[in-house]
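User: Reviewer 2 asked us to show a designed sequence for the structure in our supplementary figure. I'm pasting the structure tokens here. Could you produce the per-position amino acids so we can include them in the response letter?
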């Protein structure tokens, strides 16, 4: 699976370089194997066109297009925003909701970690979707998914909210770097589904289990005594292995959730479960591979999703629209309530409160 994924991602890089630099694929393969390059070597091989310092770039541009005037990026953005605001006040363009799902999935409220990465809460997501459904001024919804999955229950709850929403307004899905396991599960709640060529897609699978640390505790000189009521009260204790009946029950839950996952893929993608099964089993695909297998509708980015939303609303591609982002930054008066949901040092971390997971075996970070 990993070699297939690497082959496809590598071929995308080769094809992109070949098309941009006017070279054959074998020539690009040879250049990649040859690297690294000094600037002079890169120019001689045709990978770049010029060697110049930053302050020499305007002269190169003027030779091609005539006199140029440089503007700082921040100043350009401010001027552009002012122009957009003036246009908005004059024309009252249609509003689109852009809902971002960026991070692993969990039940409850969204939490932001110390490294800036979010854990997206199903309750927060549902609240945003209800606001969007109730707002008659929002004509369409675009959901940008960049998630390796997480809690199986959270993914199902988020899928349900999207499914409810698409019966009232168009819901279009745009997959980012990763939309796998629970991330792909919730993406089934809209149509069409756009993926980037390199999006890590699919991973239609379920995992469950626990770490048994009894031997480690013994080596550290720690002994635990577990007092319970109920035959399976300690089923997820890290001090005991699963008994055969406990293992059998957990296996039953995993298989039931997996079959439901495959059935949802079949229902939402217009396929039979027999057609989905060979592409499931936890395997991940590139966006291009997923498109060939019918797991996504088209190759494209966020801009293509916006264009599709305009098309469904009967708007020209170049027609300006107002995009409203969700989730919104919390107002100051909600800060105290948000602090209450942040886990304390003695609380069980949110990722340890689930039995069944739809999450990739590893989490990918694209830097």
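Assistant: Here is a per-position design you can include in the supplement:
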């Amino acid at each position: 699976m990993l070699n297939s994924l690497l082959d496809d991602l590598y071929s995308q890089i080769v094809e992109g370089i070949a098309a941009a630099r006017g070279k054959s694929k074998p020539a690009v393969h040879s250049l990649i194997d040859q690297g690294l390059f000094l600037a002079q070597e890169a120019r001689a091989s045709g990978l770049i066109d010029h060697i110049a310092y930053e302050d020499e770039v305007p002269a190169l541009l003027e030779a091609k297009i005539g006199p140029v005037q440089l503007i700082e990026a921040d100043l350009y953005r401010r001027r552009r925003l002012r122009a957009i605001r003036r246009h908005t006040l004059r024309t009252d363009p249609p509003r689109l909701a852009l809902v971002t799902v960026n991070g692993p999935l969990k039940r409850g409220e969204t939490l932001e970690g110390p490294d800036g990465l979010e854990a997206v809460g199903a309750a927060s997501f549902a609240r945003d979707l209800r606001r969007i459904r109730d707002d008659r001024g929002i004509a369409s919804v675009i959901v940008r998914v960049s998630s390796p999955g997480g809690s199986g229950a959270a993914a199902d709850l988020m899928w349900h909210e999207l499914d409810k929403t698409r019966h009232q307004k168009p819901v279009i899905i745009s997959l980012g770097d990763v939309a796998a396991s629970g991330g792909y599960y919730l993406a089934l709640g809209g149509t069409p589904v756009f993926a980037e060529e390199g999006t890590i897609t699919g991973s239609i699978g379920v995992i469950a289990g626990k770490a048994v640390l009894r031997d480690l505790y013994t080596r550290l000189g720690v002994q635990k005594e577990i007092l319970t009521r109920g035959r399976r009260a300690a089923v997820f204790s890290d001090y005991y292995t699963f008994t055969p009946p406990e293992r059998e029950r957990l296996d039953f839950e995993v298989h039931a959730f997996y079959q439901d996952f495959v059935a949802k893929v079949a229902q939402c993608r217009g396929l039979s479960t027999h057609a989905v099964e060979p592409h499931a089993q936890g395997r991940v695909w590139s966006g291009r591979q997923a498109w060939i297998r019918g797991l996504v509708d088209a190759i494209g980015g966020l801009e293509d999703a916006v264009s599709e939303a305009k098309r469904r609303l009967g708007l020209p591609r170049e027609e300006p629209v107002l995009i409203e982002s969700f989730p919104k930054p919390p107002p100051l008066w909600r800060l105290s309530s948000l602090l209450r949901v942040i886990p304390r040092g003695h609380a069980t971390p949110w990722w340890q409160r689930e039995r069944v997971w739809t999450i990739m075996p590893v989490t990918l970070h694209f830097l």
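For the response letter, you might also mention the following. The mean pLDDT is 89. The longest helix spans residues 244-269.
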